[in-house]
Amino acid sequence: MRGTQRGNREEQVWQEVLSDSRQTASSEPHPCLPTSRLDVHTGPGELDRMDTLRRSLSRWKRYHIKVHLADEDLMMPLTVKPRDTVMDLRALLVREGVTSWKKSFYYNSRQLEEHETLKDANIQNGSVLLLVSNTR
User: Per residue in 105-118, pLDDT tens?
Assistant: First the structure.
């Protein structure tokens, strides 16, 4: 008998909540209902934890890019990290047996600076860089 009363009371409360939520849009939301989609899944501090997790996973992110060697008419595939700099790219190319001395890297018609990271240059997975000799 008591379970029936409890069930009826819960049903009455939900009916009140539903009827309150059907009021005009200018009224304030019911305190029992979530105010946004984030309130449904996240609690206090959950967004900070998600942001920390995203940043820590980016450490393991790898991009597969290609460097077009204009002088040799060759495309060299490389696996790099977003935090690698142009100097790191030069070191990778030397390991592959390609000299990049007196050559400049270009991406989207813009020359890349030596200490610029791939992330700063907006280089993403699948991007193609151009390596051209400096003619001065």
Answer: 999 999 999 999 99
Residues 45 and 58: their CA atoms lie apart, in Å, by 20
Mean pLDDT in residue range 57-81: 89
Separation of alpha carbons 37 and 83, rounded Å: 33
User: Radius of gyration over alpha carbons of the chain, in Å?
Assistant: 29
∠ CA 121-123-129, rounded to 5°: 95
Strands 103-107 and 110-111: antiparallel
**Size (the chain), residues:** 136
- Write down the residue that tokens 């539903």 correspond to: 18
pTM recorded for the entire structure: 0.58
